[in-house]
């Protein structure tokens, strides 16, 4: 069983658009690693996705660009992004120009693409089960010793 799991882990591709200063993003990264998979970590503030990739990510979430906008600690208000007239393409252009506007963590797996807020949302798109217990940084238990989600 260990050999089969090792082979599957090596074929499993998970990408996280991550901000290491964000607690939610760190919790999601821990949940991914708790499956035994080391994801591709894209620190999007250092290496922002271009317009084409961001457009693909927005489309993959099925939610539209507005769902990926972050307000807190960003130029959201100064840019007037609360106005409903902005198209998805325009909002994506703002995120390309100001990567801090991109909400995080955004995770891509073979099972889907999702903005993982709250952090437990990543569990719905991870292709492998949790290997053991895991608590968030604040101590809240998310996964029990049996590897199952704590509700």
Oligomer: single chain
Could you give a short account of the major beta sheet?
4 strands, mixed
Helical amount among residues, as a percent range? 25-40%
Low-confidence stretches: 1-5
CATH topology: Glutaredoxin
CATH class membership: Alpha Beta
The amount of beta strand, in percent, is 5-15%
**Strands ordered across the widest β-sheet:** 2-1-3-4
Q: What is the number of helical segments per DSSP (H or I, 4+ residues)?
A: 4
Kindly describe this structure.
The protein is of the alpha+beta class and 151 residues long. It has a single domain, classed as 3-Layer(aba) Sandwich (Glutaredoxin), CATH 3.40.30.10. The protein has four helices and six strands. The protein has helices at 2-11, 23-33, 51-61, 88-97, and strands spanning 15-18, 40-43, 106-109, 112-115, 134-135, 141-143. Strands 2-1-3-4 form a four-stranded mixed beta sheet. Strand 1, helix 2 (23-33) and strand 2 (40-43) form a beta-alpha-beta unit. The radius of gyration is 16 Å and the shape is elongated. The protein starts with a helix and ends in an 8-residue tail after the last strand. 26% of the residues are buried. Mean pLDDT is 93; it is low at 1-5.
């Amino acid at each position: 069983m260990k050999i089969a799991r090792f082979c599957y882990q090596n074929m499993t591709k998970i990408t996280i658009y991550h901000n290491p200063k964000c607690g939610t993003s760190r919790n999601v990264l821990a949940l991914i690693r708790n499956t035994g998979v080391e994801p591709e970590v894209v620190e999007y503030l250092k290496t922002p996705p271009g317009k084409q990739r961001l457009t693909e990510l927005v489309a993959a979430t099925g939610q539209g660009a507005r769902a990926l906008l972050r307000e807190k600690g960003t130029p959201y208000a100064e840019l007037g992004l609360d106005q409903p007239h902005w198209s998805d393409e325009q909002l994506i252009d703002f995120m390309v120009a100001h990567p801090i506007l991109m909400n995080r963590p955004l995770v891509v797996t073979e099972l889907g693409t999702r903005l993982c807020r709250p952090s437990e949302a990543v569990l719905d798109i991870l292709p492998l089960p949790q290997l053991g217990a895991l608590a968030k940084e604040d101590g809240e238990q998310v996964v029990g010793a049996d590897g199952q989600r704590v509700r």
